[in-house]
Amino acid sequence: MAAAGAPDGMEEPGMDTEAETMAAEAPARSLNCVEAEAAAGAAAEDACAARGSLQPAPAQPPGDPAAQASVSNGEDAGGGGGAARELVDLKIIWNKTKHDVKFPLDSTGSELKQKIHSITGLPPAMQKVMYKGLVPEDKTLREIKVTSGAKIMVVGSTINDVLAVNTPKDSAQQDAKAEENKKEPLCRQKQHRKVLDKGKPEDVMPSVKGAQERLPTVPLSGMYNKSGGKVRLTFKLEQDQLWIGTKERTEKLPMGSIKNVVSEPIEGHEDYHMMAFQLGPTEASYYWVYWVPTQYVDAIKDTVLGKWQYF
Question: How far are the Cα atoms of 17, 134, 180, 271 from residue 255, in angstroms, in the given order?
Answer without folding.
Answer: 122, 17, 23, 26
